[in-house]
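Running low. Got one?
___
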Amino acid sequence: MGKLTFIAGVAAGYVLGAKAGQKRYEQIRGRANQLWSSDPVQARVDTVRDAVKEQAPVVAAKLGDVAKSAGSTALSAGSSARERITGEDLPDTIHRGSDGKLHADTTGFGPGGDKLP
């Protein structure tokens, strides 16, 4: 009998609490909507919206400049790496063959040059 009374009490508490919680939620929601719709808040929203519209082209131009700068930096870094590989300052074990490609000298490495794949 005690368990049944306890379960009935929990169920009643849940139902009453849920109704009170929903009522309080609707009250908070109504106040938030009322605040958002108020003239001072909407005036600030309009001010911010106008400022964003004015500054958007400036920000877009700056982002474009930064992107171009980053791209040219990446290209110059790639060029210097390419120059290091194709330049004359190569390690003794790497040379350019008559076909124009880089070749590695495998003598002295591993099990032997003739046994490498």
The chain has two domains: 1-37, 39-86. The chain has a mean pLDDT of 76.
